[in-house]
Amino acid sequence: MHVPKWLAAIITIALLIPGPQDELLVLIIIGVYAAFKPAMRKDFATTTREAWSIYA
Description:
The chain has one domain (5-55). It is built from 3 helices and no strands. The chain has helices at 5-16, 22-36, 38-55. Helix 1 (5-16) packs antiparallel against helix 2 (22-36) and helix 2 packs antiparallel against helix 3. The chain crosses the membrane at residues 6-36.
C-alpha cells in the first residue's frame, strides 16, 4: 500500500498522541482516504482483515 507523505505524517502524529483513541483516529484517517481512492479500497479491506485477525 503506497501512502503519501502527508498521510504518513498525520498517522505518525496521531500515534504519538497518547490515549486509547489514537488507533481509531488512524483507522478513520485511512478509511476517509481510502473512500476517495477506489484502488485503495481492496488494499484497505485486506489490511483491516489482517489487523483484526491478530485480535481474533
